[in-house]
């Protein structure tokens, strides 16, 4: 299988501190890769470099053979890369439906003038967006809430909504920053179910997560970070027995 | 999905038609040319406040410098027609294109700033523009202003006639409302609102946020420029004070009082502030013998009170009132239905 | 050379006033996150109420503190009645509301004092002083000395008193400060009171040089903004340097280029600063933890 994403020697220094230290890994098409590590291991920094939120000090990220590093944030969606946020970034004052329809933006060709003059393409685009949004809302079981203001949903549903918005345009690679954080067991299971379902359809995932049970269940491969360095990589089975990993986590949280 | 539009955004034609009826009927009741002038000015200023509503209410970007774009339109039209006897329509188009260019460049530079600092930068631009038109007195007439701007005529129709001009201005207002509404009722409008809620999330969904901010900034500047051209031809005399920050602030007040999240709010706010303005001036002069801009006390108070107690503006209150009336009606209908059923 | 000295003196004089305004802005901005567009009106109230007190027969040394205290009370009242209730609203609301306060106060000024400019007699009634080829207006000297004295007082206040350090702590990190038991709500009131007093002093000092009108607050307030931006929004010493620098830039551009365009140049400097040296100006969006 071809490598969808390659991370090469990615490094970030903040002043004198090296938050991420020469990380290497790759992600194959259709694969689900998890990044784990104790608090402060540099996971979020790594994640933000891959999603072009912060520039690396050195190293690069390659996506489908092209350099991703140095691109603008908005270009990623056009390449088929989506992301969600650790601290939820939904549009609170818009309805659930509108939130998801926003996710279709990259597929639409309306501009200010065609919109202003209400050219026929506008209506067509609206219908495309609406249809795609409906499909996804159905999938994540949010259809009953579609005319509710997103800000009024429960935290768990908001998390589902953000996920729905990220996948609505059928991206190839989905970056999830702690998708299970703050969810109860039932909600976690539901979210895991969606991820598996999309994986079957060929989507790839890279995610940062704290909940070990979820990571073990979902990931094909796990990257373990500690103090900015990659200390282990392997299947869930291998990681669970890796001594370095166990000692890094000792006293942190239970496996 | 024929009604997808209405499902997503509610009805457009109801408020549109109501406003149109009001605009068409008003001249029947207005006999004083003074009030007709106020109504025309409301139309002209509405063009600017509609643009500000798009910029502030939808894209969430503040501007305290739109009086400058209003001024660019007015001066381009004024100078080209009064000094060089150019065609007013061509001058108007030149004004619009020039404003588009200027505002695009300014927008690219300053829209990286946020909140307070954006407000500050737009104020600075307004002040610099003001000083420039004072300084370039060879063309603009400087502090003494520019006189002799001809009135417009359309085909054989002399728009110097206030009544004709009233209809002409409001026709343009409706065109602009429709154009703006179309933008709002599309994925562009959705995108603007999403920038307001979370810029970073909008960006990750593939939207070049910076580009859209600049486009909307320029669009609102163009509306202001168009308003400026109409103003120049209507008043026939322009002078720098009309294009100072005080006017930018007044525009902001109109939009905020009416309701920043709605284009109807912008029009409503403009009308209310304009009438209030005239009323206060009248009261002040007749009963208290005060001249000067005493109305600013009342403006200040209104801004403070509106911001404190109804930050969504008057249009929000009207909407809520409307909903209440409707729900009462529905309940009433249900009750009646129940009693008749019982009776049967 | 004489001319250069002269411009320098003029620039530093006016610059000290801008510096005072900028300190007011910085104090409020860092404690409450609000850029107070009404700051200039405090200068107007200070200047005009001082004129009124003098006209009522108060001697200068009593009129000045009375005017400062009156303005400080107004600053306090503004914070309590208008700013505090809306402190958690959006930035746009806050901007508009301080503009509202500014407009309202300006209108009151118009009603109370009318449109005609008022003159305030200079404190020092002696002839101009010759120094290094420059003619120094005694009022300039008075302004310098006052600003120096004020800076010393502010230094002691911020550095050596408990309230001052509490204020500084709230500037740096409001949350931590409130966890330490500092009442950040009263800090906000204190910031407005202090800023109003500083504004009043600025107004009183500039009035003998330029005359006082109800409209004077707007431009002097904006200049204070520019000074703050030049100096960096986060520190008081920066504000002082920014104020002096702006004053000097204005004096020299007025002297060598054109007095007519000196305001345009000042605001051009503001724009250039915002474009090219925006340290501390951009929101934290890029560095924000997401």
From TrEMBL, chain A:
<protein>
    <submittedName>
        <fullName>Amino acid/amide ABC transporter ATP-binding protein 1 (HAAT family)</fullName>
    </submittedName>
</protein>
<dbReference type="InterPro" id="IPR032823">
    <property type="entry name" value="BCA_ABC_TP_C"/>
</dbReference>
<dbReference type="InterPro" id="IPR003439">
    <property type="entry name" value="ABC_transporter-like_ATP-bd"/>
</dbReference>
<dbReference type="InterPro" id="IPR051120">
    <property type="entry name" value="ABC_AA/LPS_Transport"/>
</dbReference>
<keyword id="KW-0547">Nucleotide-binding</keyword>
<dbReference type="InterPro" id="IPR003593">
    <property type="entry name" value="AAA+_ATPase"/>
</dbReference>
<keyword id="KW-0067">ATP-binding</keyword>
<dbReference type="GO" id="GO:0016887">
    <property type="term" value="F:ATP hydrolysis activity"/>
</dbReference>
<dbReference type="InterPro" id="IPR027417">
    <property type="entry name" value="P-loop_NTPase"/>
</dbReference>
<dbReference type="Pfam" id="PF12399">
    <property type="entry name" value="BCA_ABC_TP_C"/>
</dbReference>
<feature type="domain" description="ABC transporter">
    <location>
        <begin position="5"/>
        <end position="252"/>
    </location>
</feature>
<dbReference type="GO" id="GO:0005886">
    <property type="term" value="C:plasma membrane"/>
</dbReference>
<keyword id="KW-0813">Transport</keyword>
<dbReference type="Pfam" id="PF00005">
    <property type="entry name" value="ABC_tran"/>
</dbReference>
<dbReference type="GO" id="GO:0005524">
    <property type="term" value="F:ATP binding"/>
</dbReference>
UniProtKB/TrEMBL annotation, chain B:
<keyword id="KW-0472">Membrane</keyword>
<feature type="transmembrane region" description="Helical">
    <location>
        <begin position="88"/>
        <end position="110"/>
    </location>
</feature>
<dbReference type="InterPro" id="IPR043428">
    <property type="entry name" value="LivM-like"/>
</dbReference>
<dbReference type="Pfam" id="PF02653">
    <property type="entry name" value="BPD_transp_2"/>
</dbReference>
<feature type="transmembrane region" description="Helical">
    <location>
        <begin position="214"/>
        <end position="237"/>
    </location>
</feature>
<dbReference type="InterPro" id="IPR001851">
    <property type="entry name" value="ABC_transp_permease"/>
</dbReference>
<feature type="transmembrane region" description="Helical">
    <location>
        <begin position="296"/>
        <end position="314"/>
    </location>
</feature>
<protein>
    <submittedName>
        <fullName>Amino acid/amide ABC transporter membrane protein 2 (HAAT family)</fullName>
    </submittedName>
</protein>
<feature type="transmembrane region" description="Helical">
    <location>
        <begin position="117"/>
        <end position="136"/>
    </location>
</feature>
<feature type="transmembrane region" description="Helical">
    <location>
        <begin position="36"/>
        <end position="57"/>
    </location>
</feature>
<keyword id="KW-1133">Transmembrane helix</keyword>
<keyword id="KW-0812">Transmembrane</keyword>
<feature type="transmembrane region" description="Helical">
    <location>
        <begin position="243"/>
        <end position="276"/>
    </location>
</feature>
<keyword id="KW-1003">Cell membrane</keyword>
<feature type="transmembrane region" description="Helical">
    <location>
        <begin position="12"/>
        <end position="30"/>
    </location>
</feature>
From TrEMBL, chain C:
<protein>
    <submittedName>
        <fullName>Amino acid/amide ABC transporter membrane protein 1 (HAAT family)</fullName>
    </submittedName>
</protein>
<dbReference type="Pfam" id="PF02653">
    <property type="entry name" value="BPD_transp_2"/>
</dbReference>
<keyword id="KW-1003">Cell membrane</keyword>
<dbReference type="InterPro" id="IPR001851">
    <property type="entry name" value="ABC_transp_permease"/>
</dbReference>
<comment type="similarity">
    <text>Belongs to the binding-protein-dependent transport system permease family. LivHM subfamily.</text>
</comment>
<feature type="transmembrane region" description="Helical">
    <location>
        <begin position="60"/>
        <end position="78"/>
    </location>
</feature>
<dbReference type="GO" id="GO:0006865">
    <property type="term" value="P:amino acid transport"/>
</dbReference>
<dbReference type="GO" id="GO:0022857">
    <property type="term" value="F:transmembrane transporter activity"/>
</dbReference>
<keyword id="KW-1133">Transmembrane helix</keyword>
<feature type="transmembrane region" description="Helical">
    <location>
        <begin position="6"/>
        <end position="27"/>
    </location>
</feature>
<feature type="transmembrane region" description="Helical">
    <location>
        <begin position="134"/>
        <end position="158"/>
    </location>
</feature>
<keyword id="KW-0812">Transmembrane</keyword>
<keyword id="KW-0472">Membrane</keyword>
<keyword id="KW-0029">Amino-acid transport</keyword>
<keyword id="KW-0813">Transport</keyword>
């Amino acid at each position: 299988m071809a490598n969808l994403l390659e991370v090469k020697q990615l490094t970030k220094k903040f002043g004198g501190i090296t938050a991420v230290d020469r990380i290497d890994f790759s992600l194959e098409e259709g694969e689900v890769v998890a990044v784990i590590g104790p608090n402060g291991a540099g996971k979020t920094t790594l994640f933000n470099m891959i999603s072009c939120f912060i520039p690396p000090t050195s190293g690069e990220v390659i996506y489908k053979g092209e350099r991703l590093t140095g691109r603008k944030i908005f270009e990623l969606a056009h390449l088929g890369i989506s992301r969600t946020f650790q601290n939820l970034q939904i549009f609170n004052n818009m309805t659930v439906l509108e939130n998801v329809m926003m996710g279709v933006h990259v597929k639409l060709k309306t501009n200010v003038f065609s919109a202003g003059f209400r050219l026929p393409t506008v209506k067509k685009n609206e219908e495309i967006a609406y249809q795609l949004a409906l499909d996804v809302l159905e999938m994540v079981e949010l259809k009953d809430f579609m005319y509710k203001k997103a800000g009024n949903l429960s935290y768990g549903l908001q998390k589902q909504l953000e996920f729905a918005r990220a996948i609505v345009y059928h991206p190839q690679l989905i970056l999830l920053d702690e998708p299970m954080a703050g969810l109860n067991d039932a909600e976690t299971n539901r979210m895991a179910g969606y991820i598996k379902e999309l994986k079957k359809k060929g989507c790839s995932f890279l995610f940062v997560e704290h909940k070990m049970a979820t990571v073990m269940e979902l990931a094909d491969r796990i990257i373990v970070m500690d103090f900015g360095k990659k200390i282990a990589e392997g299947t869930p089975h291998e990681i669970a027995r890796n001594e370095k990993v166990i000692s890094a986590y000792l006293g942190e949280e239970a496996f | 999905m024929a009604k997808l539009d209405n499902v997503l955004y509610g009805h457009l034609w109801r408020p549109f038609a109501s406003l149109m009826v009001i605009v068409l009927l008003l001249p029947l009741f207005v006999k004083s040319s003074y009030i007709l002038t106020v109504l025309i000015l409301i139309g002209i200023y509405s063009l600017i406040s509609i643009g500000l509503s798009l910029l502030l209410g939808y894209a969430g970007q503040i501007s305290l410098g739109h009086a400058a774009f209003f001024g660019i339109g007015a001066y381009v039209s004024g100078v080209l027609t009064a000094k060089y006897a150019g065609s007013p329509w061509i001058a108007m188009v030149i004004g619009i294109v020039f404003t588009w260019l200027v505002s695009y460049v300014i927008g690219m530079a300053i829209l990286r700033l946020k909140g307070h600092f954006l407000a500050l930068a737009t104020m600075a631009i307004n002040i610099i523009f003001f000083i420039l038109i004072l300084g370039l007195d060879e063309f603009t007439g400087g502090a003494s202003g520019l006189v002799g701007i001809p009135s417009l005529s359309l085909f054989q129709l002399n728009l110097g006639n206030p009544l004709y001009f009233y209809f002409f201005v409001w026709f343009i207002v409706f065109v602009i409302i429709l154009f703006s509404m179309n933008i709002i009722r599309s994925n562009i409008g959705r995108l603007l609102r999403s920038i307001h809620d979370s810029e970073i999330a909008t960006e990750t969904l593939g939207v070049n946020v910076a580009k859209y901010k600049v486009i909307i900034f320029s669009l609102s500047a163009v509306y202001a420029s168009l308003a400026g051209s109409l103003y120049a031809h209507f008043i026939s005399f322009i002078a720098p004070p009309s294009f100072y920050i005080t006017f930018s602030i007044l525009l902001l007040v109109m939009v905020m009082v009416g309701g920043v999240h709605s284009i109807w709010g912008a029009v409503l706010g403009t009308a209310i502030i304009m009438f209030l303005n005239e009323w206060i001036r009248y009261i002040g002069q007749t009963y208290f013998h005060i001249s000067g801009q005493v109305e600013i006390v009342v403006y200040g108070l209104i801004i403070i009170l509106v911001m404190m107690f109804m930050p969504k503006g008057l249009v929000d209150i009207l909407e809520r009132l409307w909903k209440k009336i409707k729900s009462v009606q529905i309940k009433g209908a249900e009750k009646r239905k129940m009693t008749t059923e019982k009776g049967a | 050379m004489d001319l250069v000295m002269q411009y320098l003196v003029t620039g530093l004089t006016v610059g000290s006033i801008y510096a005072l305004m900028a300190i007011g802005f910085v104090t409020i901005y860092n404690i409450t996150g609000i850029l107070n567009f009404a700051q200039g009106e405090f200068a107007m109230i200070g200047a005009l109420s001082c004129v009124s007190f003098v006209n009522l027969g108060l001697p200068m040394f009593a009129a000045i503190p009375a005017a400062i205290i009156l303005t400080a009370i107004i600053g306090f009242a503004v914070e309590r009645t208008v700013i505090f209730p809306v402190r958690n609203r959006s930035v746009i609301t806050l901007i508009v509301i301080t503009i509202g306060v500014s407009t309202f106060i300006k209108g009151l000024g118009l009603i109370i004092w009318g449109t005609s400019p008022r003159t305030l007699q200079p404190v020092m009634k002696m002839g101009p002083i010759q120094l290094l080829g420059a003619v120094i207006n005694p009022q300039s000297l008075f302004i310098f000395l006052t600003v120096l004295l004020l800076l010393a007082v502010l230094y002691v206040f911020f550095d050596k008193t408990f309230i001052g350090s509490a204020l500084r702590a709230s500037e740096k990190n409001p949350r931590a400060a409130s966890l330490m038991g500092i009442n950040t709500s009263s800090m906000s009131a204190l910031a407005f009171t202090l800023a109003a007093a500083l504004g009043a002093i600025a107004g009183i000092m500039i009035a003998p040089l330029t005359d006082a009108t109800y409209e004077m607050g707007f431009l002097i307030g904006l200049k204070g903004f520019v000074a703050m931006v030049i100096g960096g929004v986060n520190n008081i010493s920066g504000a002082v340097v920014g104020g002096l620098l702006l004053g000097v830039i204005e004096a020299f551009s007025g002297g060598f280029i054109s007095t007519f365009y000196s305001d345009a140049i000042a605001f051009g400097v503001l724009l250039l600063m915002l474009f090219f040296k925006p340290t501390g100006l951009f929101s934290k969006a890029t560095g924000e933890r997401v």
